[in-house]
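note to self: dont lose this again. the chain is below, predicted strucutre after it. 297 aa total, dont forget to put it in the shared folder this time
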Amino acid sequence: MKLSEIGERKIVESLLKRFSIPFDDCAFIEINEHYLVLTTDMVYEKTHFPENSKPYDMGWYSVAVNLSDIASKGAEPVAMLVSFAMPRKMDKRFFDEIIDGMEDCINNYGGKIIGGDTKEGDKILISIAAIGKVRKEEAMFRRGAKIGDSVYITGKIGKGLFIFSNEKNKILHVKPRIKEGRILAKSKKVSCCMDISDGLASSLHQLMKINNVGFEIYEKNLPVADIAKKINNGIKKAIYTGGDYELLFTIPDKYGKILERKIDIKKIGKVIEEKGAYLISKGKRREIKNIGYEHFK
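---
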């Protein structure tokens, strides 16, 4: 059987089961009153960077996607290990601009590069292991959603649709929600949280499975990027398209309303007992299918 017949999600599920790994955005190591929060993300020229991407944007993106995972746990960035595979004919200036993008993202959101590795490769590959820190009582996990909680999201969805426009490079302009994640964590009221790199639909199904609950999402409440408004069926496509790197979380309604005054978040639905993810649109209820970006497919 080929990997294309299995898909990324089932491959990940088998590895989590084999090594008894909790299904979350990051791993957690207890250090006194804190957790060290660890994650790793690999970006590859052929699958992650639109044609003619600027090297600065590549560097920024490679750091930002890792910091997005750190943000989803409410942690502060601490450090990163950065590994490269690069063609031997790459111009030194091109490489320097990749590093510039990395450095600027770190300067904006935190952390520092403390080491890594370099290798020769046919295509650009950047692999980063990021480390964060959060107090144990503030840490946010994927598990914990409760029936009756409100469902919230930061920012807007549908930014991944830039891939279908003349502004493809905008999908690399990820803004990791470190500030928002810290405010959510400090509230100590968030019941579960994850980042939505693979799309809202896929993320809802992941939370549904791990929490044994369901979700009702209100279409009229969905904050969609301007690009989604310019495309036919833009809202539907925004739900199923990856690349947003926003935070999806659940919280008791009264506390969500308090946090609305502090950060850019939007209530988009509620946690329900019935298993499934459903979109409420113009009085009708229809299923949100488990579709999103998946490698090997």
